Amino acid sequence: xxVSEQRLIQRLVPTLLRLRQxxxxxxxxxxxxxxxxxxxxxxxxxxxxxxxxxKSGFFASVFHLAKWVPYYKYLHYPFDNLTxxxxxxxxxxxxxxxxxxxxxxxxRDEQLAGLTGAIALLLMAYQYxxxxxxxxFNALMLxxxxxxxxxLVGGVxxxxxKWFGKAGDEPRSPHTAEILSRTFGSxxxxxxxxxxxxxxxxxxxxxxMATYSEENWTAFQKFATTSHSLWLxxxxxxxxxxxxxxxxxxxxxxxxxxxxxxxxxNLSYALSHHSAxxxxxxxxxxxxxHAFGTFGGTGMLLALVIAIFINSNNHNYHVVARxxxxxxxxxxxxxxLTGLPVLYNPIYLIPFMVAPLVNMGIAAxxxxxxxxxxxxxxxxxxxxxxxxAFIGTNGNLVAFLLGIVCLAVSVVIYLPxxxxxxxxxxxxQAELAxxxxxRHVEKS
Amino acid sequence: xxxxxxxxxxxxxxxxxxxGMVFLGLLIGPSYHWTQANVTAMTGRHDSQLSPIxxxxxxxxxxxxxxxxxxxxxxxxxxxxxxxxxxVKTDDKITMSGSxxxxxxxxxxxxxxxxxxxxxxxxxxxxxxxxxxxKQLAAKYQFNNxxxxxxxxxxxxxxxxxxxxxxxxxxxxxxxMTIGSPYNFSEENLSHKTQMLADFIKYRENLPKNATVYSxxxxxxxxxxxxxxxxxxxxxxxxYQGQVKHYTEITVTGNNAQHSDLPQNKQIVALIRxxxxxxxxxxxxxxxxxxxxxxxx
Lengths: 444, 297
What we know:
The complex is a heterodimer. Chain A is mostly helical. Chain A has helices at 3-20, 23-52, 58-62, 65-68, 72-87, 90-105, 110-125, 139-142, 147-164, 176-211, 213-226, 230-245, 261-273, 285-292, 301-311, 315-329, 334-339, 346-368, 385-392, 397-435. Chain B has an eight-stranded mixed sheet, with helices on both faces. Chain A: The phosphoenolpyruvate-dependent sugar phosphotransferase system (PTS), a major carbohydrate active -transport system, catalyzes the phosphorylation of incoming sugar substrates concomitant with their translocation across the cell membrane.
């Protein structure tokens, strides 16, 4: 590293700085910031719900909580609620934020734009049924998986306000008359946004009905999780990682169902032969990707957290990393994804994809050379990343050490990109200082 | 690296990091114990050769309903199947009598209910009670497969149980036999589906895909066993056919083909021996050789 790395960074900084200062990128960054606290609260609630209050969760299994904690059966309800209403509605916040910031840049009524964006997203997520049912919103569109869609909706809402609304600063002394005229000025863009949302919603509905997209998706996911060829496993993992960093979910994202045939075959082989070496399908999503490529959630973000701890000078990074460590230990990457942010961040695209793939490669070699048995035994939900391989091999110490090695390798992969991100943050700060009297100090 | 680090801030973060690592380190021990215990338990179940026959009697019958059947089976089979009886009370409490004889790999287990009344609502309740009994049995006897026999409403309880409660990946049901089970209650006309039949059809996808199912009907004349219409038993095909591995309908006539006599009917006892019991010869001859894999194909 050293000098050459520094030079490379110096070269890249101006380009990336310009990208960062585009309106487009600003809106995304500020919106992610807005969702961050919701995601943080939701993530903590989700961790408690999954690891402590779910029977098959990590703490619940390891400490047999269901057996001795009174009223254990009922304890998860409040946490279910909190998790659902924070994490699973994050996209509404994002649509609000994106529309608000986009409108603000154009000097339009930001509050109305934001609310319109949120409602437009809800309109699109509404599911038409012929029965009177409750809970008819498509959860996929409102949760963290719908973030990209929400940003789009917000952005388009902002555009509508730009094209059809009237510019005007917020009235200094809020007289009713002025507010009223401002509100009426926003009526046209609001109406157009909502009408467009309705049309899109009907179109989406028609597409879903016509193509059974959900079934196709499930079939695809099934295909992905049951594949057992080495190259397919790596390809699917790469696809997952890419989709995740652009805010969509990948084929491995959903927690792997326990009865994937290859997994069952492996398990039953291992049980019959009292050994997990030589199982029929050693290279599956489960044995490689989940066991060695997801420490700290998708993208090995636990490695990024550690990289920040040992080698960052940016105050904000440290704060986010400290808050994000506990979730990352339990493979929840939401806070780091949105807090730094890593999402939509071209700087982190390379390590985000490379680190897990390299780890999978290391693991595949180790399995092929019989250094470790395949990871075939059941692992509780929310098991900390470095312990997954350990538990999944029935306590094989080499597997545990290999997990630590993988983590260290990932930290090394993330370090140069962290330096680049810091250099850009510093350059942005310096530029603001040069211009003097910044209107808003950009969050970095 | 190339700048002066801000030491106090970094120290605080490093403390957090060390705390995190210590926390993780403390979990290694418990994790190790858990996975060892878990794998041992799974191996135990996997290696188990036990393959019980679990029976559910029909409405108004108790856990003693199959005593004669088991006697006849033992006599014909020249084996003594242990007979274990469970009763689930209305408050979910379970009483158990009988015990597993040593070296008996095919015990008969009968699960009766304190509330053994007829009707769809009761069947739903009984299915839940059965699921409790099943859970207890699975924990106590560590079997990895079983055979299911339900007489009359017992077959309906089984159907509801398989569709709504049975989702264990470590236990399979190999064969299911329902004897005179009225899938459409007393409705003779198949175009009039009862609520229960409609529900059975609605959730049929949850039925175990690898089970072989036999539906046995008895008839005194051409269309009834005196209580249950043959067409109602026949309606089982709308539930099982195409959903399980094999679905076979068998109709028994002649002596003792009246609904309540069916479990003692010689023909049906023979059918149970032929289709439901494991073949004894294979087991005795190879007992010492067959290792962990008995029971799984």
